[in-house]
Amino acid sequence: xxxxxxxxxxxxxxxxxxxxxxxxxxxxxxxxxxxxxxxxxxxxxxxxxxxxxxxxxxxxxxxxxxxxxxxxxxxxxxxxxxxxxxxxxxxxxxxxxxxxxxxxxxxxxxxxxxxxxxxxxxxxxxxxxxxxxxxxxxxxxxx
Length: 143
Fold this sequence. Notes:
- By secondary structure, the chain is of the alpha/beta class.
- Helix content is 52%, strand content 12%.
- It has a six-stranded mixed beta sheet.
């Protein structure tokens, strides 16, 4: 079984008007094979927390949707634990750019997941398996 760690930019496309290639790829993957990192939910929450100042009703709705997403993933929600933190620090020591993307790369490396993201260039050199679902017929590659 291949387990896939989803980046926020992938989750954002899971709407009826989202990227067709992403939606097609997701339709072919069993939900049991999908994972979400605490970092992915951080990215989603951060923007909506900021938005509370200008649109509290919409922000509250979106934050509730994020809570529901986390609950739906249950044991497939991946916390950032000690081994992931150590690997994340190692990756940042090599290159101090793209901190959040490198947290996802560290999680994928430690847990043996394929990182599903559009941001392949941001994790290049991390020796991590990635898949870009924004392209037609995506393939897993190590970058």
